[in-house]
Automatic annotation (TrEMBL):
Pfam families: GDPD (PF03009). One of its GO terms (molecular function) is phosphoric diester hydrolase activity. It comes from the Bacteria. This is Glycerophosphoryl diester phosphodiesterase. PROSITE patterns: GP_PDE (PS51704). InterPro entries: GP_PDE_dom, PLC-like_Pdiesterase_TIM-brl. Residues 35-322 form the GP-PDE domain. One of its GO terms (biological process) is lipid metabolic process.
């Protein structure tokens, strides 16, 4: 009996040794690279996030402005890249005249002087709106951007034409499969090299349609991400990469990331081998995957010399913390 337990103990020790050696980052050669910075919402107006829901009008709870940029505009994107962003995220909605409007909200009532569902308008109508109309930091006493946002809502075509050599993450705001089909048709028309610099995330149905039409495009939906991470946590210790994790955008919440086998360097290497791009985001507590790493305390939670992807809503704050020298003009 004692021999049995000795053998069992030796086997357990060997297994533990295999798991350690197969997943430790200590044996991974470090590169001199810097984190890849994803500017969620670009350079934008921040807002009070207390009690935030999917229906909250964030423009009506804006914090005191420190700059003049509004999210999802050409100027905001340009400022994001100048601040050090490698990738900028923006939102799209199909329009009745066959284009895609770049705008955050499902409806127009919160931010603009328009009314109704965004996707039920033509791009020609949307261009005439004042997208700064509803922003207020004092409960509606003043509206510092009113009158300054007229004509600033761009189309997807305009963004891609303005920044042909830049990388973007596109957010589909619906779970409508038709939107995935329409976006696939639009992206199929652009140069393959430019398309390779794009990623898309959104609802399960449109993303499934988009992946079927453009299988080389990196995409992500909530269902895809859950399937990838749960499988990886289950058997990633073996070094095997779940097929669910291949060729996609992987968002790893900072409080979940340490549970990912091989975190950080082995995990990042494995995702890269699978053709996927991995980014650390803010802590997950059951809400949507939209919070970034935005403060010095958030950045301090990253592993030392981290060179993976980082998503942030505060690119102006985070880029200097991660020693990313701004390119082009400084953000003002």
């Amino acid at each position: 009996m004692s021999r049995f337990w000795k053998c069992a103990g030796l086997l357990a020790l060997l297994c533990a040794g295999f798991v350690f050696v197969n997943n430790t980052s200590l044996l991974v050669a470090k590169t001199a690279g810097r984190p890849l910075l994803l500017a969620h919402r670009g350079v934008s107006q921040q807002f009070d996030r207390t009690g935030l829901t999917g229906d909250t009008c964030t423009a009506a709870r804006m914090l005191r402005p420190t700059h003049d940029y509004l999210e999802n505009t050409i100027a905001s994107m340009r400022a994001s890249f100048a601040a050090g962003a490698d990738i900028v995220e923006f939102d799209v909605h199909p329009t009745t005249d066959g284009l895609f409007a770049v705008f955050h909200d499902w409806t127009l009532d919160c931010r603009t002087d328009g009314k109704g569902v965004t996707r039920e308008h033509a791009m020609t109508e949307l261009r005439r709106l004042d997208i700064g109309y509803g922003y207020t930091a004092d409960g509606g006493q003043t509206f510092p951007f009113r009158g300054k946002g007229i004509g600033l809502m761009p189309s997807l075509d305009e963004v891609l034409a303005t920044f042909p050599d830049r990388s973007f993450l596109i957010n589909i705001k619906s779970n409508d499969p038709t939107e995935g089909r329409l976006l696939a048709a639009a992206l199929a028309q652009i140069d393959a090299a430019q398309r390779s610099r794009l990623m898309v995330y959104g609802g399960d149905a449109p993303i499934a349609m988009l992946r079927a039409a453009l299988p080389d495009l990196k995409v992500m939906s909530r269902g895809m991400l859950k399937g990838c991470l749960l499988r990886y946590i289950g058997y990633g210790w073996t070094g095997l990469i779940p097929s669910a994790c291949r060729n996609m955008l992987v968002l790893a919440p900072i409080n979940v990331a340490p549970w990912l086998w091989g975190w950080p360097d082995r995990f990042l290497q494995r995702m890269a081998r699978a053709g996927s791009s991995a980014f650390v985001i803010g802590s997950y507590h059951g809400e949507s995957f939209s919070a970034g790493l935005d403060t010095p305390d958030d950045i301090a939670r990253l592993p030392e010399n981290f060179d993976g992807g980082v998503m942030t809503d505060e690119i102006e704050t985070v880029a200097p913390l991660l020693k990313r020298a701004p390119r082009g003009d400084q953000v003002k």
